[in-house]
Each structure stands twice: as C-alpha cells, then as structure tokens.
Amino acid sequence: MGDPGGTGRFGEFGGRYIPETLIPACAELDAAFREAWADPAFRSELDSLLTNYAGRPSLLYEATRLSAELGCTLLLKREDLNHTGSHKINNVLGQALLSKRMGKRRVIAETGAGQHGVAAATAAALLGLECVVYMGEVDMERQALNVFRMRLLGAEVRPALSGSRTLKDAINEAMRDWVATVETSHYLLGSVMGPHPYPWMVRELHRVIGDEAREQCRALLGRDPDVVTACVGGGSNAIGLFSGFAELPAVEMVGVEPAGGAAVGRGVPGIVHGSKSYLLQDEYGQVAEAESISAGLDYPGIGPEHAHLAEMGRARYEKVTDAEVLDAFQVLTRTEGIIPALEPAHALAWVLRAKDELAGKVVVLNLSGRGDKDVAQVADILDRADG
Amino acid sequence: MADLLPLEAHLRERRNSGHKLLVPYVTGGLGKDWAEVVRAYADAGADAIEIGIPFSDPVMDGPTIQEASEAALDQGANLGAILQELRDIDAGVPLVLMSYVNLVFHAGYARFAAEAIASNVSGVILPDLPMEELGEWEPFAKEAGLATVQLASPLTADERLARLCARSQGFVYGVNLLGVTGARTDLAESSTVLATRLKATTDLPVIMGFGIATVAHARAATVEADGVIVASALMRLRLDGAGPEDLGAHVAELRAGLDQPR
Fold first, then answer.
1. Looking at domain A9-49+88-198, does it have CATH number 3.40.50.1100?
2. A72, A213, B17, B148: most buried by Cβ count inside 10 Å?
C-alpha cells in the first residue's frame, strides 16, 4: 500500500473534496507530514513516545483456549493494551507532534465512542495543546464516562446537535470549526478518511500495528499468517494491520463491518467529508445513518483505501450482526479473560462464524480496543434479554 | 458577448449598466410555496437567484441553513422534485443551484447537467468541489452549457486566485470570511481585502457572500465588489414564518439600499 501522491487517489477513491478555505491547510499538512515522516529526528521522537508512553510494541498473544475450540491458531494483536486502551494512540501522538511542528497550538477532534476523543485529549495534555472534541449528543449519552475522561484531561467537549447527532455529525461540526480557525488549528482526524492527506497519513501512523504483527508472527510461528482480520468503521485499525501484510499475496485480508453500517457491503460510491468512497445513502444521495451496537463503527462511510482494496479484490469485507457481536464479546471474555471493545468483537464474530473456513489456519485478529467503556452498555442489553 | 454563457452575459450587462448585483438565496423545497419565493425575489429586483438543494451534511453551512436544510428534507424535498418545480417558473432572471457535490455525483453528472438546463438553471455552485477535483464534472457542465461558479477564500493565494478566476464561469463567488454561512453583526474585514484582490485579478462579476444580512453590509461589501449574495438572513425569516411576499419585501429593501446613490 503505497503513496497516493499529491492527488491522494486510491484508484478512483480518495481525493480532496473540500471547501476552498481548507485547501491551503491540506496542502500545508501534506507537505509537513511528508517532510516530518522523512525526518529521522521526528521519527525518533514519535518512536520514543510510542515505546515509553504508549507501551509499544503491543503483544501478539496466542489465544490458545479459543484456538483449540475453533480449530485454528488465533493470534490477537493486543492494541487494547496501549495507553488509553486502543490503537487510536498511534495516530494522535503522530498528529499532535506534527501539529506542534507546524506551530498550531490548538487541535480539533471528532469522536464516536470516545476512544479517539480520549486519545486526542491525552496527546494534547501530554504536549500542552488546546483541545476541542466534537461528539454527537446521542453518543455523549451513550458514552458519558468517556466525556468525563476527556474533560478531566483538559479537553473541551462540544455536542454535535444536528442531523443524527452521532459520529458523522461530529465530523461536520469539526470541519465547520476548522473552516473558521484553520490558521491556528489542526484538525486531528481520527480515522483513515477525510481529504488527502488524512487517509494516507493516518494509515502511515498506524502502519506500526501491521509491521509489528508480521514480525511477531514470524518470531512466534516461523511463518506468515493465512488470514488477517479487523473491524472496519472508518477503518483505521484495519488499515494499520493490513499495511503490514498487503505486499504478501498469500495473506488474505478480511475487514468486518457492522451489518447496520456496512459501507462496502451495502453502500455505493459517494462523496462526503472530503473524499470519494463507498457510502450509505438514500436514493437521492442523502447520507444515511449507520446503526450498530458500537458507537465507534456508527459511520456511514469507509476510508477510501478500503474501497480501493475491496474494488481490487485484495481485501474482502464481511458483515456481522449485533447479536453475533454480543456473543463474540462474551466468548472472548470467558475463554481468554480478555474483555474486548465492541468494535473488535465484530472481527471476532466473523472468526467464530467462519470457523470451518478457518480450520487449521493461522489468523491474526486486531484486538483494537479494550471493553471497559462498553461494559455498562452490554450489561443493560443482557439484563433486558434476561428480563 | 455571444459566446458567453447566459448567466455571465446577464450579470455583466447588469453590472456594466451601473447596477450592483443582488443574489438572494432560498432553500429549495422549504415550504410548499418555495417556488413563489423565487418569483417574489425576481419581482423585487434580484439579478440572479440562488437555490440551495438541501443536503444531509452541509459542512459549509451555519445553524440557519442547516436548520433550513433539515426542515426541507423533513418535508420531503429532493433534487428531482426541486428541478421539476423549477421547470414551471419563468423568473426572468438566471437561476443558480447551490449543491454539495454528492447529490450531483449520485444523480450522475451528465444526467444532472441535462436536467438542470431543462429546468431553466444556468449555473451551479458546488462548494466541496474545488479546482483539484473539478475535472470530473466540468466536461458535463460545458457540454450542457451550465456555468460552474468557483468560490474564492480569503486564504486563497494570489497565484491560485488567478487560476481560480480563469476557471470560474458566470461570476466568481468571494467568500467574505473564514467560517460557515450565517448572518454576522459586522461585515468581515477580510471581505474588502478579498474583493479588492478579486477585482484586480478578473473582469468576471465579483459577488461576495457569507455573513451579509443588512443593507449596510450589502453597501459596504459592494464598495469594491460587484454584488452580494444574501442567504441566512432571508432563511431565518423564512424559518420564522415569512411567506413569499414578506421575503420579496425584504429583497426589495436590499435592492433599494444597493441602488441608493453613494
């Protein structure tokens, strides 16, 4: 998965569909990231934070009990053990350092489940940046604890009150803020979406997941995996994992979407939030609302590079239901003593369903976040089911 | 002037005869009588009329246009129905559609261009289709004879501003400020700076928008520029219950204000 060049195209997808006011900022960001990414001093500063602050490398753990039940070798890439509890820290540390380097002392972020918002607020606290996080009003209710976390970390959390009042509306509000404050603010976007250079830059910042997993798998088993899999909303944790394996043609790549927000599965090409990709929309081109048990995957689009990987057939995209996700959430908790976030429980739900297809194979699954944030929600749902 | 697109020919003629240009906006499909608003604007002395196609995710719009868009969508507005109603309007002045690009892309560029022309539309404003991405749409617009208006921002650098003006058709839309649409108390200082730069760059009509709510704003903005777009202030009245007549009266006031000797 290479450099999409100045136009930011992955095949027909990607691009830079943004208002004129944001064009200079995206051009500046592209240039600044290219320069920083090639600068050993920047890389070493970031690597040092990833090692000493975020806790990288994350473990690649062989889930032996679950593997025995499934009849495959299941390796979990433990991004849930990173500081702040998810893969999101990789991206925010990189972008926060870059923001400082560009002389922008204020960062704007959007968040769905709160994972990216908490990570952004954390990086801002660490590096002394002002941080404003937009969050859909509905999500603020669903994830009240993360709202409090962000505020504790010194971030200002502003509700997105328009539209569906979820992640896509939080992105709208973040972009509106950015249009007004672009001279002094950096938009610290949380996934592999948005206008160029974001899909490329965020992928590069998460590439560490796949690079580590590939080497760890070789060290552990002396071979490459047959299948790598991850959940996909915007798709940042999946693209991070995939980028370590895309050049190995024998490794199959599987992205797993929620059935209620399956942009590849049910969407058609569209343009929103700065790039062209698959998008859930109605017959007139109005963006549809994604619906899933997981606020972090409640996004009607998907990163443009995923659309390209799907179009080329290099990755395949499966969808799972909320019920399958809840089941997988409990299976991992009980057999391995690991409570996953509902997002990576999607990838596990597919693994459980595809048991026969995966028999005898080596599977690397990106466990992108821990489940503490979801425990109250799952308790509610299970109580209701019992009652 | 025979080779000019009708939008540009009309605006140039009005400007060259000494008028400042007034372009009021209405959200398509907002209220059953929205098409009457278009006629009322024309009768009140509008030089062109901007019709917004409501979109679910209007990132360049502030609270008023967001509310207007949501309300119109709730009332069942859609691109096809709006174009259908425009077919029957003989406003006597050019109609310009403002749409986020996904609605146009989803309809199909060729189909949209043909249907817009068939509905008496003479230009389009696509705020999230900057020059970099214009190539996928422009051939279809040219084929149909539809003008694609470019937006210039206070942050657009000189070299880019020249390319942007050369690429713009009909007029060039100067965005007064850094931010989204919406009425402001004062005209942004960046407005005059950008208008002056645009006038030094192009002979196209230069029309300024974003934050223009009052006669005083409109007069101040047109010291340098050729005209103004007024949107949120009118849609605020519309959302608060104003009908075609009230809105027409408001546009007539703006017209009179612009026409007063300086």
1. yes
2. A213
